[in-house]
């Protein structure tokens, strides 16, 4: 699950409400169906132990080794030494840092520091993992590696991951659901593919267009409007439709010429999402028949 918003929209505050670092002024926060406001004492502490946290800037203790940084939550729980050693070794193997067990944070790269942070967050076997801009401080290659690791955590351990980000490309790669925030409110939410294909709110649309390019430059649009009146259409292809030779069939079957102005294709949640902007040149009756054929083939059409 992703929380998507620009800076200052309230996404980090919402994360602090989930882990009870903040208390809501109104409404309620439910974790696994349990209202957090009603919890206190030992019950609240037990709930907090069920929530792991990954930070943007790693938040490691520079004076402690990798082993000790990961062991801290277990030490605070009062676990015995043998358990701690076994658990830390298991987590280091999972994040592929077994050879760094005695290293200090200043000896690690940014990606390695974040892997240590992830291992620490997993130490207590949480059911929920909160990620606050976990990849924002990393280079693109390292970001991909960390996202793949988060995917593996979700797949192997069944942990719910709540990911705060302003990067649509991060959501495109690993998330299943997304909620879009503006000024402290959720303005749109749903499955990631649905929001990529059909964003309803202007904020969502602006984020989507940063990774899924489906618009012509305004200068080109103005030129088309002054042109010979040929129709400019935006075609949307989803799933199997994106892999069919629909345009080729259109040219063969109808007396129209197709001028392709723009085309793009993206993969979202394992499904193909394609966009094309075209001009149909021909007699009005024939272009209408061609458009009907596109609609019947499952292509969504809007006028540019």
UniProtKB/TrEMBL annotation:
Its main location: membrane. It is found in: Cell inner membrane. Residues 1-208 form the ABC transporter domain. GO terms for cellular component: plasma membrane. GO terms for molecular function: ATP binding; ATP hydrolysis activity. Its EC number is 3.6.3.-. The keyword Lipid metabolism does not apply. SUPFAM superfamilies: ACT-like (SSF55021), P-loop containing nucleoside triphosphate hydrolases (SSF52540). Coiled coil: none annotated. Pfam families: ABC_tran, NIL. The keyword Membrane applies. One of its GO terms (biological process) is amino acid transport. It is a peripheral membrane protein. Keywords: Amino-acid transport, ATP-binding, Cell membrane, Hydrolase, Membrane, Nucleotide-binding, Translocase, Transport. This is ABC transporter, ATP-binding protein. It comes from Klebsiella pneumoniae.
